[in-house]
Design goal:
The protein has 257 residues and is an alpha+beta fold. It has two domains: 64 residues, no CATH class; 182 residues, no CATH class. It is built from seven helices and four strands. A four-stranded antiparallel β-sheet has the order 1-2-3-4. α3 runs parallel beside α6. It starts with a helix and ends with a helix. 21% of the residues are buried.
Length: 257
């Protein structure tokens, strides 16, 4: 009995060690197999951590490209025409209507002295006052019509080249700026070419730009009154202001895209 117990006790440590060794080996084998299997499954699914082209960052970039791709050349061209032609039509129609109704030469060509009193919308601040301008924006540089026509033509060509040859159409804000400016340039160019005058319009006014919006802030320097302007002038000013905002705040984002 003593011998048997001794043998039994002497074999127990070896059996325990073997059991622990086998269990550890099985655990490591199973873990490695599971890890390998999971890695293989991940690789097959295309979401492996180290798999090229499957990281989270490129996926987000692809999503961004998908959104940008909806802004196509055809859509950009349509928006540009809407702003440019729409602005031109609005300018020419308002000029024609206001001058037909309020310009003294249309009412009574023989009237003298001619009355240019404003017709107020907001008393003393905003109204209608028809006048003609032989100069640039806000009456600057009177009498240089040939120069202004030439500069307008060059500006139009430059805008179109910038938009469609150098890819500015891809930037929606920039395209909107240039569309508004195109409408403004065309509206005043129409007047400078002498295409608007009536038979009773004095010869001196044939190549002038028609202005009709009157604005003033009583007692405020430079605004009492502000030089008369029109829709085309407004389109040009808004387009330039938006372009400045674009250049200062959004040009970097457009470059990244």
């Amino acid at each position: 009995m003593m011998t048997t117990d001794s043998t039994s006790h002497s074999e127990s440590p070896d059996a325990g060690a073997n059991a622990r060794t086998n269990a550890g080996a099985d655990a490591r084998t199973n873990a490695g197999g599971n890890a390998g299997g999971n890695a293989g499954a991940d690789a097959d699914a295309g979401v492996g951590v180290g798999a090229p082209g499957n990281s989270a960052e490129p996926a987000s970039l692809d999503a961004g490209i998908g959104v940008s791709s909806r802004w196509t050349f055809s859509l950009a061209w349509g928006v540009f025409l809407l702003l440019g032609v729409g602005g031109l039509v609005a300018d020419l129609w308002t000029k024609s209507y206001m001058f037909a109704r309020y310009w003294p030469y249309h009412q009574n060509p023989n009237q003298w002295p001619i009355s240019y009193e404003p017709h107020w919308w907001i008393d003393g601040v905003l109204g209608i006052q028809t006048s003609t301008n032989g100069g640039a924006l806000f009456g600057m540089m009177q009498g240089y019509q040939v120069v202004f026509v030439t500069l307008s033509g060059l500006a139009l060509v430059g805008l179109l080249v910038w938009l469609f040859a150098y890819g500015a159409w891809r930037d929606r804000l920039l395209l909107s700026c240039l569309g508004l400016m195109t409408g403004g340039i065309l509206g005043n160019l129409y007047d400078r070419l002498g295409l608007w005058h009536e038979p009773n319009t004095p010869q001196d006014f044939h190549y002038h730009v028609r202005d009709w919006i009157h604005f003033r802030l009583a007692g405020v320097p430079y605004f009492d009154p502000w030089p008369n302007f029109n829709i085309a002038d407004s389109l040009l000013v808004v387009g330039v202001m938006l372009m400045l905002i674009h250049n200062f705040f959004f040009a970097g984002d457009a470059t990244k895209e």
